[in-house]
Amino acid sequence: MAPPPIVQQKSSSPSQPSGYVFFLPSLSVLLLNRKPLRFLIPSYCLSRKSEVSDLKLQLRQLAGSRAPGADDSKRDLFKRVISYMTVGIDVSAAFSEMVMCSATSDIVLKKMCYLYVGNYARCHPDLALLTINFLQKDCRDVDPMIRGLALRSLCSLRVPNLVEYLVSPLSSGLEDGSPYVRMVAVLGVLKLYHISATTCFDSDFPASLKNLMLTDSDAQVVANCLFVLQEIWNLEANKSEEANRERETLLSKQTIYYLLNRIKEFNEWAQCLILELISKYIPSDSNDIFDIMNLLEDRLQHANGAVVLATIKVFLHLTMSMTDVHQQVYERLKAPLLTLVGSGSSEQSYAVLSHLHLLVMRAPMLFSSDYKHFYCQFSDPSYIKKLKLEMLTAIANESNTYEIVTELCEYAGNVDVPIARESIRAVGKIALQQYDVNAIVDRLLQFLEMEKDYVTAETLVLVKDLLRKYPQWSHDCIAVVGNISSKNVQEPKAKAALIWMLGEYSKDMPDAPYILENLIENWDDENAAEVLVFNY
Amino acid sequence: MISQFFVLSQRGDNIVFRDCKFSFFCSFIFDSRFTYNILAKQKQGLDLYIALPFGGYGVDCGAEFAFQSYSILSTVVVLYISTELIDRGEVPKGSAEIFFRKVKFWKEDEEEEAPPVFVGLSNVDGVNYIHVKVAGLFFVATTRVNVSPSLVLELLQRIARVIKDYLGILNEDSLRKNFVLVYELLDEVIDFGYPQTTSTEILKSYVFNEPIVVDAARLPTLGPASMFMQGAKRMPGTAVTKSVVATEPGGRKREEIFVDIIEKISVTFSSSGYILTSEIDGTIQMKSYLTGNPEIRLALNEDLGIGKGSASLYDYRSSAGGAVILDDCNFHESVRLDSFDVDRTLALIPPDGEFAVMNYRMTQEFTPPFRVNALIEEAGQLKAEVIIKVRADFATSVTANTITVQMPVPTYTSRIESYKNDFHRRVKGAVSVGDIVKFSSLDATEDLSCTVGVSFELEAGAVGQTTDFKEGAKRLEWCLKKACLSHIFHQIMIVSFKLLINTLHLNLKTLQIVGGAEHTLRTKLTFSQESHGNIAREAGPVNLNFTIPMYNASKLQVRYLQIAKKSPSYNPYRWVRYVTQSNSYVARL
Fold first, then answer.
1. pTM across the whole model
2. Chain A contact set for B361 (CB, 8 A)
3. Contact (Cβ atoms closer than 8 angstroms) between residue B45 and residue B101
């Protein structure tokens, strides 16, 4: 078990009665450990109330204090209040004390107070009203940090009947001299929209945002405007014709080029979302397409995989109608994608591989010489291995089938059974694609000699499929299949495959009746539909 | 864009939970669209919301409570949950719970590990869960809109890194100790679900809490957590565990910059020792503690080539003159490449915190640091012998450490022994300990433990090096992942246990291999049943895990690291370090 958190170290604070030490650890256990919960509940319930009222008392004592060090003690108390809050203990009783204490210039205290207020305001609208005053005052503070934070908290209160207090701080926030405040105000508009859409439209905020988006000097403000407008118009699009038009203008050539020209000013996340928007843009002609692609070419070298993938999306969408350029784009994308596969965590590689998977499925030929990149690595998690196996199957052709199948056969003995099964199936799929069938059939028959149940089962199903497509191989296959002991075949699908082969090629297999006899002995225990169907 | 963000421990405990659309903190949050019976009670002037899964225990709590659903996403806080319900273990399932259950019991499509992106309750609630595992913790984001998964994955990874920049060390303990700071960071990183900034540099001006530093030395070796790091292709963070905002005890910050060239290599040897595939994935990672952000210049090999023309075929013809040819690379956004084409120098103003200056990939032929030969042959009835030979092909001044050799053995193996040879008895203290083979059994009731004499048999030539061996180094561990992960993935592990019981896990953790040395391990296997056919097909492949400090396989070098001088006396510490790690180092039988 992990050591008890925050609370433990609180006990060393001299300002607190030592009595806390005894039950605080029990709270931390509540956090960390599910089992002992039951035994701790009674004491926790008893102590909870007295603790909160004690906190209230201490907060009240400190509220008016201007003594040196008062802020530090307040910080400790606030931290404790918030730690209770995060655990789910109701500390809303201390609301008014918290608000009283927040009349301070200490920004750390203010921030914690905002957190607290934001959490309880919605459930306690009457209490939220108490905070409006000091939040509004903070919105006019000299420090832009405080203005921004107060505005953010104000918008996060989410109390419908307090909406009227939001409008004026928001409009002055949008015109604030500090980009930080503007950034917060822009998202504040979205928050307001979700609380009360009509107030948002009545105050004409979307129009101001549109204006801000096209003029503001700060990239993050511009990006936020774009996000907000996108969300609002998307939600409104069904309701009004005007909203629909507004949504279209976001995709106008003017807006798109404005964003494109500034793309390097935005941070990587904003770049991704802007690229996403650009991918929806319909270019007017081929010059348009090449202009955009030239502007974005260097984004393919970005270390952030999300930016690269978003750029790729734009490229693919733009060239959809130009077949030859589209192929060139594929060529161009290969190297950056393969680099991304190896450069991040396995989760990030998964996202990149999923994209590669799509591309491979669309244009297997292009990747046929890169097959080695899709070999499974020892440390790959199974979700990655699976993707790679599918890609290997897709890109197999005359030139690489031998290598790919050799590699896949190595996986068949893998300790990871699902992957082993998957690779055997992959071998079968490649065989059905008609490349190098001869060698593959030999390999499959070798699998049968491994005498691992799941290998045998998967292989039998495949051999059956192959025989249906290439009856000319029956002679080789039947010799091996005839030797299989039916006891080793347990899986219904494999049994069904075996029975089918026994029936179909019985004249070549002198032992067939005896094998069938064994199967019939266990007939009564059989209940899988696949097997039963052969009875008729 | 993002609805919720949370961090879970491996046991499923909520460490951090942030509802991005609403500022709520709570340990139990659930989705209203999911069929729940919502029961409300008025008590002492406070609303008590109690939630039960539909058709759950019929607690008679009065009328059903219909609550207002706000927008696309609606959540309700369970402020207080009756003790009775907790007693029965019937705590409402929040999205964190749903996520955890999904991950824990992932069995769809025979896969055993949940992919990083999945849908919650098969389209019932339309919630997408996107997660990454970092330092044994789950960083999860949920979303209802069709957002690019790679964007969210990158963002989560970045959030973890920003938190690490601030806390110095990222683990459960440091998160719990610094949760107020973490929430403060999250507030600035994500606002109403939209990512704002993840630059540690910019965040510094918004974030005011000081980190409570967790002592690195005091940390347990992260038993279960370390498994995640081993399994995933984790890029090791630099060894620096110092917060970007913390000041040294002396009050002054130490001016220093770390540049790490980290290479993960993947090599596959065929059974005849021929190299089938080889690849290097490298990163130049930087962590700057320089004040005032001076510009720095990083010079790489002058003859560095990028791209192999249009042909991306693997060819093992060594390029002329031994120049380093990278297949491809990408750069951090702060890097300016003005003079890169001329003299291979990168110019950048390093932002605070840890970041990758450049990622590169190389398939050009290189000398693998280890030659691995593995052989398994039958030695009479019910017996086989495994011989694994590892030769270090690098300079004697370099020492590889934390080497682990893993090899799956046939399922019906009942006994493994490596035995001493007379020769070694004479080498003082060299081979004496490690006579334990640990078996963990399928269920705790049945303990298969069995003690066998174990040792490494060393070739005569390697005698000189045997003095480097430490006590306890020569242990042959029958190590099961189950034992390490039992906490959370209990259910899953029982399944995969059957697979893993067959892995011969040679743990040479404390063993160091000096350049030029060659080690051979001989092990006898005893089987409970006769092997059929080809035994080599049922065992292996051998996998090697290692770290080699001050060595890089690609020969990519940092020629110099130049820092723009603010004053003549300004001379910050510069650390350039090379590390090579195995990613997938496999020898087939």
1. 0.77
2. 338-339, 342-343
3. no
